[in-house]
Specification:
It is a single chain. This protein is mainly beta and 281 residues long. 14% of the residues lie in helices and 42% in strands. The strands form five sheets. Strands 1, 2, 3, 4 and 9 form a five-stranded mixed β-sheet that branches. Strand 2 and strand 3 form a beta hairpin. About 12% of the residues have low confidence.
């Protein structure tokens, strides 16, 4: 462990540590931050584009154009009857120990139609890659004119995100309040347990259907059932196969099915524990 935000008596904070902290706050990718003019692009002429003040985070590496100023980028001449796409990027470079960021125009290839956006340098700054480009804008050139500029980079504003979170929390509070109001009108009911003995139809190979509601008060609402027969708990599996009798738990009735062979009624007595609440008329 090494302290970053603290005095050590000598220079010790590394740019990689600073970038990692920025990524934790802003995000691991590359973004234009919602500050100043957001690095907005202005077409001045067919050969000049201005990028106005703002701040960006390129994989945690902050770069900025000072407030109230702009960078000027030169655009190569277009050709009559041809189209072209140029790419404006923020290029991170590391030479030895010296790191830098600058705006660069990557010139595309002219085409009669559907020109392609030129490739840029990809990579991970934290892994030591250099150069690494952060695409900001595509410049659309038609003939000898700049037809428009399309922003590629996401503008990320933390202040706006906090406002959005606050609005969402307000909505959650309203929902919770509505739920609490609704719950206030509901009277909590106690769950009552009742143990009963059920007829099994022992000695018979037919089915016996037992309705649990027959064992409960008329104002009862069944909420749970636990059934056993002899030493076995339902549903029972014997030798890896379902037994000849089956039960449907948590329902209003149970089907006792003994289609293979009968069992002695005195040996297989069925018990049920019923759980219910009383419903107020």
């Amino acid at each position: 462990m090494e302290i970053i935000t603290g005095y050590k008596g000598e220079p010790h904070v590394k740019s990689a540590q600073d970038r990692a902290a920025h990524q934790a706050i802003v995000g691991e990718g590359s973004y234009i931050l919602e500050v100043g003019n957001n690095l907005s692009a202005e077409v001045v002429s067919a050969n000049e584009i201005r990028i106005h003040d703002g701040v960006l985070s390129q994989q945690g590496c902050f770069g900025a154009i000072e407030t109230g100023t702009y960078d000027t980028l030169a655009i190569a001449n277009g050709s009559q009857g041809m189209q072209r796409k140029d790419l404006i990027v923020c290029r991170y470079t590391k030479v030895g120990k010296v790191e830098s960021q600058e705006l660069v125009v990557i010139q595309g290839t002219p085409s009669a139609s559907n020109p392609a956006v030129p490739a840029s340098n990809t990579g991970t700054i934290a892994s030591g890659d250099s150069p690494v480009d952060f695409p900001l804008y595509v410049v659309n050139i038609s003939g000898i004119s700049v037809a428009g500029v399309d922003r590629l980079a996401e503008i990320r504003g933390l202040a706006g995100k906090f406002d959005d979170i606050e609005e969402r929390l307000d909505g959650v509070d309203a929902s919770i309040s509505a739920i609490q109001t609704a719950m206030g009108a509901v009277k909590m009911k106690a769950v009552i347990r009742q143990d009963v003995t059920l007829p099994t139809g022992g000695g018979s190979t037919s089915q016996t259907v037992v309705s649990f509601e027959n064992y409960l008060p008329s104002n009862a609402q069944l909420v749970g059932v636990d059934v056993t027969m002899g030493d076995f708990h339902f549903p029972y599996v014997r030798d890896g196969r379902p037994a000849t009798w089956v039960s449907k738990k948590w329902e209003k009735s149970i089907r006792i099915d003994n289609t293979t062979s009968a069992w002695p009624a005195d040996q297989y007595i069925m018990y049920a524990t019923l759980f219910y609440t009383e419903v107020t008329p």
